Amino acid sequence: MTATAPDILIQEVAPRDGLQIEAKWVETSEKIRLINSLSAIGFSRIEVSSFVSAAAVPSLRDAADVFAGIERRPGTIYTALIPNRKGAELALAARADELNFVMSASETHNRANMNMTHAVSLASLSEIVKPAHAGGALVNATVATAFGCPFEGLQPFEKVLDIVKRYLDLGVDGVTLADTTGMANPNQVSQLVAEVLMLVPADMLTLHFHNTRGLGLVNVLAAYDTGARRFDAALGGLGGCPFAPGATGNVCTEDLVNLCHETGLRTGLDLQRLIDLSFRLPGLVGHEVPGQVAKAGRPLDLHPIPERLRRSG
C-alpha cells in the first residue's frame, strides 16, 4: 500500500541552525545521536551542519566528522550549509546530499554574515552548481533577511525577486526565503510568497521562519494558504543567527507539527516521538528551550481528575 503524501513538508534544521549559536559545546557523538533520532522519525530533509570558518562558527567545527558518523536513512536528504566554493568542496567530500548556499538580501547583513558583497557571493554560487551536480548533490539557494534586515530594515520585494531570478539562472534546484531575524508579518509573507511562486514551483520553494516576535507559526499558515508547502523548523525551537542582533530561535518543530495536526494537515511525522526527543534538548544544550507543546503536552493529553472532585462525585 502506498503511503499518503503529506500535505506539508517539514524540514529539520536543529542540528545546524539550532546548534550554531549555542555557547555550550555539543559533543560530536551527541550531534550524531540527535541526527540519527531525527532520521528515524522520518524527516525528508535534515540540515546536518555547515562548512564555514571554524573561527566564525566554532560550535560546528566538527561538520565532517558528523557527516561521517550519521546513519543515512533512505529517502532522507542530508544537507550542509555552505557560503562559498571551499565550503562546497568540503561538503561534497563529506557526501552531503544537498548544499544550501546562503546570501542575504541585505548587502550589509551579507557582509556581516558571509564577509562578502552580493557580487562575490553570486560569483561563488556560479562556481558551485555544476561541480555539485556532477558530484550528485542538489543545490538549494537561500535568500536570508528576505523579510527584513536588522541593519537596513525592510527589503524591497523587487530586490528579493531579482536574487531569486539570479539563483534560477544559475541552475539551483531549490530556493529558500529566510526570515532570519523574525521581522516578517503574515500580510508581508502572503504578498512575497505569491510573487515568488510566480517564478518558482511550490515543490522548489522553502520558507524559513524565526519566532523572534512570536509570529512564526502565523507566518507559516500565511505562507501555506498562499501556496507554499515546504518549511524549515527546529526541534525545541532552537536557533538564531550569530550575525543578527536580537534573533532568536526557529519555528519549533513539534509546535508546528501540533498546529498542522490540529488543523487537519498531514505531516507524516509522529508528534509524541518529537516531544520525547525534545525532552532531551535541555540536557544537550544546557538550558531550557522555547518550544511549548513539549512543556504543555498534546491537546488531548488529559490529566487525572483531582481527588477531592472524585470523592465529592
Verbal overview:
With 313 residues, this protein is α/β, with parallel strands linked by helices. 41% of the residues lie in helices and 14% in strands. The protein has helices at 14-18, 28-41, 63-69, 85-93, 107-114, 118-134, 157-169, 186-196, 216-226, 253-262, 271-278, 281-285, 293-296, 307-312, and strands spanning 9-12, 45-50, 77-82, 98-104, 138-144, 174-179, 205-209, 230-233. The protein has an 8-stranded parallel beta sheet with strand order 1-8-7-6-5-4-3-2. Helix 8 (186-196) runs parallel beside helix 9. The longest helix is centred in the middle third of the chain and has 17 residues, at 118-134. It is globular and about 75 Å long. The protein starts with 8 loop residues before the first strand and ends with a helix. The model has no long low-confidence stretch (mean pLDDT 94). It holds the Pfam family HMGL-like. Residues 8-275 form the Pyruvate carboxyltransferase domain. It comes from Bradyrhizobium barranii. One of its GO terms (molecular function) is lyase activity. Belongs to the HMG-CoA lyase family.
The sequence of SSEs as H and E is: EHHEHEHEHHEHEHEHEHHHHH
Number of helices: 14
Q: Alpha-carbon distance between the termini?
A: 49 Å
| Contiguous runs where pLDDT drops below 50 for at least 5 residues | none
Assembly annotation: single chain
Which band does the percent of strand residues land in?
5-15%
Number of separate strands: 8
Q: Largest sheet at a glance?
A: 8 strands, parallel
> What is Rg?
19 Å
What's the overall average pLDDT, rounded? 94
Name the structural class.
alpha/beta
Task: Tell me, briefly, the overall form.
Answer: globular
Helix content estimate: 40-55%
Strand neighbour order, sheet with most strands? 1-8-7-6-5-4-3-2
